[in-house]
Amino acid sequence: MVDVLKGGNPYGSHRVLEPAGVLPQPALKLDNDMSRIWDNEILVDVDTLNIDSASFTQIKEQAGGALEQIKQIILATVAERGKQQNPVTGSGGMFIGSVAQVGDRLSERGLSPGDRLVSLVSLSLTPLRIDEIVDVKKEIDQVHIKGQAILFESGIYARMPDDMPPTLALAVLDVCGAPAQTARLVKQGDTVAILGATGKSGILCAQVARKQAGDDALIIGLGHSPAKCEVLESLGLCNHVLRVDADDALGCCNAVAELTQGRMADVVINCVNVQSAEMACILMCRDGGIVYFFSMATSFTKAALGAEGVGKDITMIVGNGYARGHADMALDVLRESQPVRELYEQWFC
């Protein structure tokens, strides 16, 4: 048991070291001293980090794909910031761990030492200490560590489901905001275009979009990898699967225009992990339509000024990773679709 301090802020501002007066996510450095906690914190022994896709892609590029260099980049970030917040993308990820200690003010939550949790808040705002990086699974953006993290009073989490492996649950919960927001945005009969539809968030969105829009609706999946495009086609979720470059705005626009006879998509969902995809999404969307930028590689300056520059009157939604009930909904997508679950088990187990 570690010492417990009184009077922690619900949003974790008491852990901010610099600059003063900001919340943990925009902070440059957090206090990651785990020798004591506040009475409204949960101390967690962490064993797995799921680095978000945009961040891990950048880290791999910076490291030239070398595992030891990837480890050093992550260790340096946590040492400097007290959290895993990529200084280039600004994004983080999530973790799996076991409860070590619960502050007195959170005793009513029914958590006990040893309970397995998946964090549903970003590592970009989570105090984290890494004692050792045990392994890096660079093909699935996961890092096995020995370390500890803090969940604040306002932090959301999910108990580990007992009907799927931990690495599978973590991979799905890492992107659970995307299918939940898709369910809110897509209406019966909508034409939906999903950029990055071949990735783990994109396939979940395609499954939900098909369910929401109906069998007669037009669902267009756009991806880059030929092999992954073939996999997406085999699932039968999309009417058309297009191989495109996400930064080729005119190419994406022309492809969707041809399929829709110029009407374009009612809803466009951006799930790619690369930069400069904003204009492709904007041009694929009809006037009065909706673009949902789930990708953390999005520049909202580029999106806002780009839409203005081409005269597109569309609603653009920031990729809020939280929606009420999003964790259960994302896990239910796997429970409801055996082909999708089998694919994710191949990828993440």
What does this structure look like?
- With 349 residues, the protein is of the alpha/beta class.
- The chain has two domains: 3-160, no CATH class; 177-348, Alpha-Beta Complex (Quinone Oxidoreductase, Chain A, domain 1), CATH 3.90.180.10.
- Helix content is 34%, strand content 26%.
- It has eleven helices and 16 strands.
- The protein has helices at 53-63, 67-81, 166-173, 177-185, 200-213, 226-235, 249-259, 278-284, 300-309, 326-336, 338-348, and strands at 3-5, 16-18, 29-30, 36-38, 42-51, 93-102, 116-119, 128-137, 142-151, 157-159, 192-195, 219-223, 240-243, 265-270, 285-293, 315-318.
- The strands form four sheets. It has a six-stranded antiparallel sheet, sandwiched between helices. A six-stranded parallel sheet has the order 13-12-11-14-15-16, with helices on both faces.
- Strand 8 (128-137) and strand 9 (142-151) form a beta hairpin.
- Helix 7 runs parallel beside helix 8 (278-284).
- The chain is globular.
- The relative contact order is 0.12.
Describe the structure using short key phrases.
349 residues; alpha/beta; Quinone Oxidoreductase, Chain A, domain 1; 2 domains; six-stranded parallel β-sheet; globular
Number of structurally distinct domains = 2
CATH H-level homologous superfamily name of the largest domain = Medium-chain alcohol dehydrogenases, catalytic domain
Helix content: 25-40%
What characteristic shape results from the CA principal axes? globular
Give the oligomer, counting copies of the same chain as homo and different chains as hetero: single chain
Quickly count the helices: 11
The end-to-end span amounts to 34 Å
CATH fold description of the largest domain: Quinone Oxidoreductase, Chain A, domain 1
Provide the structure class. Answer: alpha/beta
Total strands: the figure is 16
Mean pLDDT: 95
- How much is the radius of gyration in Å? 20 Å
Q: Name the CATH architecture of the largest domain.
A: Alpha-Beta Complex
Main CATH class of the largest domain: Alpha Beta
Q: State the strand order across the main sheet.
A: 8-9-5-6-7-10
Unreliably modeled segments:
none
